[in-house]
Design brief:
homodimer; 763 residues; alpha+beta; Creatine Kinase, Chain A, domain 2; Dna Ligase, domain 1; 4 domains; seven-stranded antiparallel β-sheet; five-stranded antiparallel β-sheet; 24 helices; 36% helix
């Protein structure tokens, strides 16, 4: 059916498909010892969290991306998952190498706990017997790849429309499976990352049952080698018919060779989803080692390389029958590469060789791949082009392979030190970027933070409108739609409109005897001017009824004139038909974030500033402060870089300074009047230091407007004194308060409001 | 305490206070017979509805306004209540005269049902014995008037600050009570409206216990006369001390003269609210008859007149002691006016007289009132000035009094016919204006309709932001905030945002297999142009992602060019950063109003049109159609008048007509292309005529977006055929659908969505 003529017509949908990544990492202590703590409770039940669970060992975190429409998206999702897990395991680290660190006595290695009666735990005990715990601790990457429904529909059309999709899937996936098994040696050669093992690492010999040390030799991937992660025997299966394949596997189980299908560990495996009723749904590529040089643990080039081989396996003509002999040859080739892959000048043994050296074998295959996929326009896609060029580079420069670099880095008994350092680097990356959802960094930070919490809790999501930050959360059919993180189903529309309307908010608060700024509401300038005598002589604020971000607001503090008043009115009325005049409340403004009648964060903002040290210039101090990874540009980070702009310069001049001034040690110099974070201001967490009466007040105000989520802005004269009628006022209730300022303040703790929000949403 | 010097200082708050009106009307049939039907269930329990209940008889509706800060507001609220009750009693009418129509046999007059055990019913049986049912059917107006808190606070300050407010209230209200009792005769003279009774009307003589006919003589107010609505004896009370007053009343109850305090029927009565802890809260003025010449049943001048007398009673010096003799004299004066008030040339009997004729007595009193209140600036208020001038006019032209006009109108045994006609006029007024909430006609019609339903159901309300149509409903502490009628607590914010976002709406509907227009979403013109070939040759709509009211939408039906496409994009992108291109769905658009998973109304709109008759010109037909009271201007009515403007003229020209053309009989001529109601379009109710599958679809769509209240706009090819994939599409889900189009369609039934909305809100 898959003739060349047919295949040629499949160009349109060839790159479409779903891509998912599964990755295991051992949790270790700061010293690189296997962590003996339980799988963190924040991740929920191991069978309940679709993204984060355990593999064989309780200490072995497995992270799983959902199937996503591109490699980029799967990679970014995995990176985020890796970052989330790093962040949530306290001081522990994720061991970045597929081969384990120094291990405790076998008896101390914890098997993942599911309850003694659980089939999951029983299975793990069984394989622990068969393969030894140490082998089961070897970690790796599984890359799941499918072709799209469009692809199969088109194939059905091209082939006359009568063949069932299930039949086509069988044929297509079996072909890819056969050929990728044949050619997999090249990916092991190119992307193998386990050249060395910890010096005391031993595994149970599958031949003798005795523990044997894993030694490196000229290995590029010990994990893929004879002592690596594989079945105790080489099983020859029928890869030409699903029925026969299934029959073979069933026979192995019947004979007691395997405990179940999931004990079958081939390098490439068919996977079956319920929706496909027995037809294969995708292929699981199992030959990639963890990449200790990548912060996410995955080498993106290896993913592309795998997919390139996958496509080649589908689209190239099969040159030989994949019978038992061929299967054995493919295994031998893998073993050979695993053991000797670091020496490119070496050739395969004669019976396996197609060219004198491995380097030449690689070149031959790459050339064939290039020609084959070129016909399908694969290289028109920049990502694939770049990835292929990188493969060509590695073929030409085999010492540039990560496996070779890792070999060098771990010489002189440096295995533990090197990987521990890598683990710490990745941990720091996670901490520095703990506010990012990779692949979604164009979305609002509050949304990114909410989604990080979501995947941590096993909650899936779908983006309904990216620009609007409109997402749909879903865990086991419990669906919640969330917009900009805090526009949710928890608050009803009437409540939101009450908060949006400053006048109504004030009325509701005042009728509950909550202190709000006194003043009036005016529909025209004339009526406002009638009240002028009421306001003259006291500090006031003139503001449009319903604009945000301080737009159109005039503050008249002291000695203001009727003319100032008139100007204030002109400005405010240019933004709204209704204008409020209010007493100016003194004190500092604090944002109280309230969820479900609990104050979960209190924040105060101060204008952009630097602290003098008597040595550095203002310019240098700003540059230093801007090095903080939380400071960025255009609201993609929790804080913004302080600008060295005209406004800052003028504000310095007013204070008698310029950018080259040196400020006294310990003196705080402000560079702006306004405290907005967007102009470099600092966010300071006060959650634990404000008098409790204000928290009660914020909750009372929240109840008065009927809200579940709100940001109450309170002016407070003295945070240590209890609230009285004369020392505070609530100036606004925000229905869409930001999360990130409370999670990544300039000073203070991460208040984890993203997690509290999810909890409030019922996750 | 209330010295002249003190009183002079009270000017500032003198007109402030709360005003409430209570009014009774008998329900009668179209023939003027007493309706023997139960109090309508729509008004809920008689003790549960604060606005609409029964008085003595089951057929006697009592409507009660809340206390409101001005006479205007109280009057408008009463008018609305009257209109609501008229509308909700089916074919029955509200009898507009205080004195009853032809009555059935005494035994058939139904006492209001509360349950035989109820104290309310027991009380009614008792008074029915004492006074006879006929007397208890006499209806009237009670006008409740208080002075403001500011007034009493100022009085407290002026008098040294040490006197308790309660004491001041006692003193003030007792003074007003004494003096208004003294002068009440003038209001009876001026505003008495019961000159004649139905010829067979008899009442039980309070002296003999026998039924005696009520005869007119020269009466102006039979209701206020000796046979009118009053206690069986004249009780002399102490009006100088609350304690003594209460003591007198208690004695009467102890002696069995009265069954309870509420059986005390003086013309002016103190009323006590719980909040005032025994101090009087306001005065109830009980001397006004129903006004059969006013559609609301209340003569507004009489309200102002009463308040003017009230103020005069407070502010003028007391000339005599209000002892038993004075009280009796006041009663006599009232009786004398009641019986002979129609003859202004007559004078009081010598012992009561202060001037030769009643007309002169009136003039004397008015002059005194004028002088007295002039010092307080009362005449600076235009409403009071006008009202007082009207009183002067009546004094000078006594035949212009309504009582005299009613006498004339009911001569020649015309009592029943005349009042029946008046009842029908008022009924028509209620029907023609059934969409108005008087006093709030500046608010949106949907809000006015919701508030009409609210007061019908006994739900009180407070306006939080009038311009925004932001109201707070409250019945027995159950509070709901509602904005523009359909922005409520029923829908959560995430759901509203899903409906507001056309792209998200479509995604949610499509994922539930609901047919929506196919198409694409574009963030820039370039990407839209790439898809041009996809759209070329088929009818499409180009629209901004999130604007309303059809702004920025281009429809390209047939033979459109790339240039048209470009122009459409230009227009749409000038309104939004994201633009949708969709297939143009043929068919007619129907609005499905869904509340709580039920389709409660289906509406279709057609452009402004007239129906030819072969006789009249287009201009005449338009003018005729515009006479419909539902057609108005600027959205204050359910339909808008058809304009005779440039656009209509051009549209006629295109069809070969002008405003002076005469159109064939039965030919429908359209004056506009667009079907907006705002440009004179017609709204046609289709609730009962659309295939049920579309109703199911609308409900399914409502569930898909998670809404409780929505207006689903569905394009339908043929309303008689069931929905299939090819004959319809849902084009929008509106989170703020209008109510009024379904309640007052041009053609079809009132679907009473305002009531369904209130029910959904839990009222």
């Amino acid at each position: 059916m898959l003739t060349n003529a047919t295949l040629k017509q499949l160009k349109k949908h060839i790159l479409e498909g779903l891509f998912g990544i599964e990755k295991e990492n051992l949790r270790v202590t700061q010293n690189g010892e296997l962590a003996l703590t339980p799988h963190p409770a924040i991740f929920g039940g191991k069978t309940a969290n679709q993204f984060i669970t355990t593999d064989f060992s309780e200490s072995q975190v497995e992270i799983i991306t959902p199937p996503l429409p591109s490699i980029e998206e799967a990679y970014d999702f995995l990176h985020t998952l890796h970052s989330v897990v790093s962040q949530e395991i306290g001081d522990e680290l994720l061991w970045p190498q597929s081969l384990p660190p120094v291990l405790p006595d076998d008896s101390l290695i914890p098997i993942a706990k599911y309850g003694a009666e659980s089939e999951f735990e029983i299975y793990r005990n069984t394989i622990s017997e068969t393969y030894g715990k140490q082998r089961q601790l070897i970690c790796g990457i599984h890359f799941n790849v499918s072709l799209s429904d469009n692809f199969f529909k088109q194939l059905q059309e091209i082939t006359g429309g009568t063949t069932a999709i299930a039949t086509l899937k069988e044929e297509v996936y079996l072909k890819i499976l056969r050929q990728s098994m044949t050619h997999r040696w090249m990916l092991v050669w190119m992307f193998g990352e386990t050249p060395t093992a910890e010096r005391n690492f031993k595994v149970k010999s599958l031949a003798t049952g005795l523990d044997v040390p894993m030694k490196c030799g000229a290995s590029i991937s010990l994990r893929s080698g004879p002592l690596g992660y594989r079945n105790k025997k080489e099983y020859i299966l029928d890869y030409y018919s699903l029925q026969k394949y299934n029959h073979c596997v069933s026979r192995l189980i019947e004979k007691g060779e395997l405990s179940s299908t999931k004990e079958l560990y081939p390098p490439v495996r068919m996977k079956f989803l319920e929706k496909d009723n027995g037809a294969p749904s995708y292929l699981e590529l199992r030959f990639l080692d963890l990449s200790p040089l990548s912060v996410s643990g995955v080498n993106k080039s290896a993913l592309y390389g795998s997919h390139i081989l996958y496509l080649y396996s589908l689209l190239s003509q099969e040159k030989e029958l994949f019978d038992g002999e061929a299967q054995h040859r493919a295994t031998k080739r893998q073993d050979y590469i695993s053991c000797f892959g670091r020496c490119p000048d070496r050739g395969f043994p004669e019976e396996l060789a197609k060219a004198p050296t491995i380097a030449e074998e690689v070149e031959l295959l790459l050339n064939d791949i290039y020609e084959c996929l070129n016909d399908y326009g694969v290289w028109d896609n920049q990502n694939y082009k770049t990835a292929f060029e990188h493969m060509q580079f590695l073929a030409a420069n085999p010492n540039q392979r990560e496996g070779v670099k890792l070999f060098e880095a771990t010489q002189n008994d440096n295995f533990m030190d090197f990987y521990l350092a890598q683990a710490k680097l990745a941990k720091k990356d996670a901490a520095d970027n703990g506010f990012r959802f990779y692949g979604l960094t164009d979305m609002e930070m509050s949304t990114q933070l909410m989604l990080r919490a979501a995947i941590c809790r096993g909650v899936g999501f779908k983006i309904l409108d990216r620009k609007e930050n409109f997402v749909e959360l879903n865990r086991n059919g419990k669906i919640e739609r969330v917009i900009q993180a805090t526009k949710t189903s928890l608050d009803n529309y009437a409540t939101v409109l009450a908060m949006e309307n400053k006048v109504v908010t004030k009325k509701l608060l005042a009728s509950d005897n909550i202190r709000v700024p006194r003043g009036g509401e005016y529909d025209d300038k004339a009526s406002a001017k009638i009240d002028l005598p009421k306001y003259l002589g006291q500090p006031i604020v003139i503001k449009p009824k319903s604009t945000n971000f301080g737009i159109g607001i005039t503050i008249l503090k002291d000695k203001w004139s009727e003319e100032n008043f008139q100007t204030g009115l002109d400005i405010a009325f240019s933004h709204d038909n209704t204008v409020l005049i209010e007493e100016f409340i003194t004190g500092r403004e604090f944002r109280f974030f309230v969820i479900n009648d609990e104050v979960v964060g209190i924040l105060h903002r101060v204008p952009a500033n630097v602290m003098g040290d008597g040595i550095h210039t203002v310019r240098e101090l700003i540059e230093q402060k801007n090095l903080d990874p939380r400071r960025g540009k255009n609201y993609h980070t929790p804080l913004e870089k302080i600008a060295l702009g005209r406004e800052e310069e003028l504000f310095l001049q007013l204070q008698g300074y310029n950018f080259d001034s040196v400020i006294k040690d310990g003196e705080q110099l402000f560079l702006r009047e306004n405290s907005n974070i967007s102009t470099g201001g600092d966010s300071l967490d006060f959650t634990d230091s404000v008098h409790h009466s204000y928290k009660e007040l914020a909750v009372k105000a929240t109840k008065a407007v009927g809200a579940k989520i709100t940001g109450a802005d309170i002016m407070i004269s003295n945070i240590n004194e209890p609230a009285t009628d004369n020392n505070h006022a609530i100036i606004e209730m925000n229905f869409n308060p930001a999360l990130h300022i409370h999670c990544f303040p300039y000073e203070g703790k991460n208040r984890r409001i993203n997690f509290k929000l999810l909890e409030a949403l019922g996750y």
